[in-house]
Amino acid sequence: MSGVFLTLNAGSSSVKFAIFDSNDPSTTPQIRGKIAGIGGTPVFSARKSNGVALDAGALSSLDVLSDHETLIGQLLPWLAAQYGKQPLLAVGHRVVHGGQNFTAPTLISPIVLQQLEALVPLAPLHQPHNIAAIRAIAKGQPDIPQIACFDTSFHRSQDRLAQLFALPRALTDEGVIRYGFHGLSYDYIASVLPEYLGEHASGRVIVAHLGNGSSMCAMKDRQSVSTSMGFTALDGLMMGRRCGALDPGVVLYLMQAKGMDAAEIETLLYRKSGLLGVSGISNDMQVLQTSDAPQAHEAIDLFCFRAAGNLAGLLPSIGGIDALVFTAGIGENSALVRKLICQRLDWLGIAIDDAENNENAITISAQHSTAKVLVIPTNEEAVVARACRDLLT
Ligand code: ADP
């Protein structure tokens, strides 16, 4: 049966949505949009695949301080008007945490929803918004199948060693392990790698997902072998507002010497650090790149220094590198960041072609580079839409 799939990605301050033709879920959605500014003044916007902006209608003024569930409830009639005569066949959700057991997209039942709620302590800042989105659909469209696609699932292929912290065994047993995130983005890149690398797609590939949140994943046979994010999405690379890997002694210092409580430390590490904290100017790479302030340059340099170091740290798990893929907002668009990272990898034989890099070309490695360097746009929604198709059939 033909119709549409709706994908929802409920983040801390936004809900992003996309509508896919059920016969063609792997490509560009028919419509893409979002409600941003949740928690303050929500702002709706949506575009067709050809870039034309769509009329917000009743969503042009949304109540200040509305929560995710309320806003998604208000979004549903607008979406229904867009589907027209095409039936809505399923709603797919990006869900941040699937714990150790959800290793693939899953049809949501009342029992699954309970299991997702039990995982809230592992992702208290994100999982509740994903659950709110599921509840809003269950309320507004109770007969529509809902499917959860997890950011952690892609990494469950990793060996046990790659998932362990050097902590007492009892903590490991209760689930304090390295879960890894950005799995939908890595899943998408893994799925399209053969188009770019042919048979080499199954070689040693590192994907650098560089956006507001940033991480890297080392793959072999297009499966995750190791990744830079750990128990939470705070670990690994420096990010827009998050610190990335940090000596845990700093957290003890903040508590013991500065008397900060958990909530204050959480705000510091998740919201006030990273590019924003180091530059004191912005969390936005594009803004920093146009700034003359030395602090902005230092923030960009640190971002790239740390990214190159993280990449080097992933190499032993796959025994070298055949291809490096840049993706997400910064990875796809910032020639400067790609160049600064690759310069720090020249000891590995990685070299880029400046002209191709400046053009955001697909292949940016120089002829003599020992590893191919590619720029591939990610498409997390397509992974969710495909999961809807696969689970329905
Ligand atoms: P999110 O993790 O929220 O999905 P994105 O993947 O959209 O984030 O990435 C957002 C980041 O990408 C921002 O730091 C933004 O400045 C950066 N970015 C987008 N376009 C450019 C560009 N042309 N040059 C440099 N950075 C860019």
Produce a short descriptive summary.
The chain is of the alpha/beta class and 393 residues long. Helices cover 38% and strands 17% of the residues. The radius of gyration is 21 Å and the shape is globular.
Kindly describe this structure.
There is one protein chain. With 393 residues, the protein is α/β, with parallel strands linked by helices. The chain folds into 2 domains: 4-150, Nucleotidyltransferase, domain 5, CATH 3.30.420; 198-375, ATPase, nucleotide binding domain (Nucleotidyltransferase, domain 5). The protein contains 15 helices and 12 strands. It has helices at 68-83, 110-118, 127-140, 160-163, 169-173, 183-197, 248-256, 262-271, 274-279, 285-289, 294-318, 328-333, 335-343, 354-358, 380-392, and strands at 4-10, 15-21, 31-36, 43-48, 88-95, 106-107, 146-150, 205-210, 214-220, 223-227, 323-327, 372-375. The strands form 2 sheets. Strands 4-3-2-1-5-7-6 form a 7-stranded mixed β-sheet, with helices on both faces. A 5-stranded mixed β-sheet has the order 10-9-8-11-12, sandwiched between helices. Helix 1 (68-83) crosses helix 3 (127-140). It is globular and about 60 Å long. Bound molecules: adenosine-5'-diphosphate (ADP).
